[in-house]
Specification:
It contains two helices and five strands, in the order H-H-E-E-E-E-E. Helices cover 14% and strands 28% of the residues. Strand 2 and strand 3 form a beta hairpin. By secondary structure, the chain is of the alpha+beta class. 8% of the residues are buried. It is rod-shaped.
């Protein structure tokens, strides 16, 4: 798994005499990364139809909701609106 470092913070720990090390760190290739948003689903049973349960899944990160049938709701590992990664929680997902 890749690790990302704040270059400006790292340069504080390299002595100024170590010019080659400072140069290597400062000019290393830059990765385009974004912080990962996390959330959990809040599940509310919306209705039942012919024995199938339909849930309102509410994202704790953005607060938006959508309907998902019982058999497919466990497949939503990310919020379709804000992209938050859904963590295992008390909701059993």
């Amino acid at each position: 798994m890749a690790r990302y470092t704040d270059v400006d913070e790292l340069l504080k720990y390299i002595p100024s005499e170590e010019m080659m090390s400072r140069f290597a760190v400062a000019y290393a290739p830059i990765a385009d990364v974004a912080p990962v948003k996390h959330g959990t689903w809040i599940e509310n049973l919306s209705y039942e139809y012919n024995g199938d349960k339909v849930y309102d899944l509410i994202c704790t990160n953005c607060g938006r909701s959508f309907k998902a049938e019982d058999w497919v709701r466990k497949d939503y590992h990310y919020c379709p609106y804000c992209g938050a990664k859904m963590e295992d929680g008390d909701n059993g997902l």
